[in-house]
Design goal:
Length: 220
Amino acid sequence: MGNALGFLFGHCCRPSSAQGVAFELHTIPVDPRSVVDGDGINVFVSTSDPRESCLVPQEVQIAALERSEARARRDYTRADALHQSIVEAGYRVINIQNEEVLVRKYRIRLKGIDAPESDMPYGKEAKEELARIVQGKCLRVLVYEEDQYGRSVGDIYCDGIFVQKVMLKKGMAWHYKAYDQRAEFAKWEKNAQAKRVGLWASPNPEEPWEWRRRNKREGR
């Protein structure tokens, strides 16, 4: 893995001082296939990042080193087995500009918005819009908390653009008022409603949370 192994040893940095933010992530370029739906995305952060470098479990460090050695002697069966153990620990080794880099996976839930589910009207469009925004971009993610599903709930910025703002203004998501009372979110949603864009083209769109509740009740 060459110089890429330098990521294994670093110094922890202080958490972001922004109000309510637990920590900040800076991702590698996003693969559009990592977009789960209109409000969820899987991202990867290089362990050379100061915050990440001190969080890599020792067993992952050892597996990464042993995998590199196995590949050097062309023992790809052993290398693949070691990589599977790395993946199971929440990490993986990917190739970035011809250099193998150890990265950590984070499942991100966009804070304050709720996009239509995949089987709902505009579910596909919402997912495609989010993928269009983040494709190939390095993201800045401000993480506030972890939800009940183990996802990191946060704000996402892409080239200085606030992603939730774009999704709300284009009518690709609802303002999730139950979990986020930011006034600007309500404003952006109201503007989209007035323009009847995206999901608001429908006279009476169903809220995703109501759709989930109804489908759970009906056993789907």
